[in-house]
Amino acid sequence: MARVLGSSNGNATLTSVFEEPTCKEPMMALASHFTIVRFVLILFAGWAALSACDSSSPAEEESPYATLANITLAVSTVNTTSGKTSSVPLTDNFTITFSKAVQSLTATTSSGGSCSGSVQLSGDNFSNCEAATLTYNSGRTTYTLTPQVPLKTKTNYKILVSTSVKDDFEKALSSSYTSSAFVTQSLCDNGSCSWSAVSTSNWSWRSYHGSTAGQSTLWELGGRDDKHVQASSSGSSWTDKTQGAVNPFKRSGLGVATFNNKLWILGGQNASGQLVSDAWSSSNGTSWSQKTLTCTASGGGSTCWPARYRHAVVSFGGKLWIYGGESVSGGSVSYLNDVWSSSNGTTWTQQSPTCTDCSSNSTCWSGRSGHAVAVFNNALWLTGGSSSSGATKEVWTSSNGTNWTCKTIAPAWTVRSGHASIEYEGALWVLGGQNGSSINSLEAWQSTDGSTWTSGVYGRTDGVIVNNA
């Protein structure tokens, strides 16, 4: 250690003097050293612990693919495009939203008449379904169902999604889904509808023609007239569709129906005055194809339904049905009460109906022509017609097409044939007709049960009414 030593003359003298340190100084220095070391060790231990946590293997995260696979496929919502559940517009569409993407090939719908496909639209609790198309968004989570014809008025429509629908992982809907009812708008107030004439500038007179609605179009076929097929999307402007050499619709008293998204013509009286028993179909109303029929008669033979006209043809329960009509053999007129059905329009089976008449007997409705058969409340309804004893006014009903029950033999309306019958706004309607000897019926009648009838507004005689609303 160096020290400065003073002198008497005021000059300082630097003298290098080394003194031994005391014991206290090194002990204090050593203590300070150990304190620093301990602090460093604590810091190192903390760093090591943190490093150990950071360097440990991270918890394995579930992949997005596995997460998506574990999402349960379900119907999230069913809505109309308008957002309405009541007073639904007749041209509205429906949207079905799923919880995840759905394989588009598993989302199918009915082509018309029968209830098929994994997504169905029905206004009668799925006894019959509406023909529709399905489109989907880019994520395949929302599907839009578009009916091919306008919806019926004042009708409760539901959508059913079956377990045939699958996601991209082949997982199906766990159970079928049925939506709440969507109620379409009413066009009549208090059951009274007003009628108005439409333009007839491109329309000529006719009777004994056939009429149906299909492909968003009204169709008028045949009849005692020089124009044979006319089509209209509005009911007021009509286009003549008669084309080509093959012209099956040059006939009157024919049976016409829309079935499996096609127009069908069955039987009638051709331009030569002969009764025929052929069947034709068309997907556009212009090009027609005659079908080769195979039949099974009630007795087990292969004889097909005989030639006839003024019979009733209807699509119901996924089948085409033929009821009665008028045939001629050897110059004699026969009134028929046979029943035939087909699931494809070409293979026909004669049915053996069972009946309960209004006297609780097992007698079926008699042979007749010019009668009307309509679908109402998930059942068929047969009204009126001409028989060997004259015009009738009976009302019969069947829930399956073969078992018939008489509802009344004395409705409020008079005997008639050549009338029209249709379901409209929750009621069964009978319009027009004649009593067998003269045109005398211009009224319209409606009923909600087939037994009690009330008079409406005036209709048309020998016409055909089609609900395309």
Quick structural summary:
This protein has 469 residues and is mainly beta.
Explain how this protein is built:
This protein is 8% helix and 36% strand. The chain starts with a strand and ends in a 14-residue tail after the last strand. It has helices at 24-55, 64-69, and strands at 2-5, 13-16, 75-80, 94-98, 119-122, 132-136, 142-147, 156-161, 177-178, 182-183, 210-214, 217-221, 229-232, 239-240, 251-252, 255-259, 262-270, 275-282, 289-290, 294-296, 312-316, 319-329, 332-342, 347-351, 354-356, 372-376, 379-387, 390-398, 403-408, 420-424, 427-431, 444-447, 454-455. The longest helix has 32 residues, at 24-55. Strands 15, 16, 17, 18 and 19 form a five-stranded antiparallel sheet that branches. The chain has a five-stranded mixed sheet with strand order 20-24-23-22-21, with no helix packed on it. A five-stranded mixed sheet has the order 25-29-28-27-26, with no helix packed on it. Strand 26 and strand 27 (379-387) form a beta hairpin. Residues 1-31 and 457-469 have low confidence and may be disordered. The chain has 469 residues and is mainly β. The chain folds into three domains: 2-48; 72-183, Immunoglobulin-like (Sandwich); 211-455, Kelch-type beta propeller (Neuraminidase, 6 Propeller), CATH 2.120.10. 36% of the residues are buried. The chain contains two helices and 33 strands. It is elongated.
Keywords:
single chain, Immunoglobulin-like, Neuraminidase, 5-stranded antiparallel β-sheet, mainly beta, disordered C terminus, 5-stranded mixed β-sheet, about 10% helix, about 475 residues
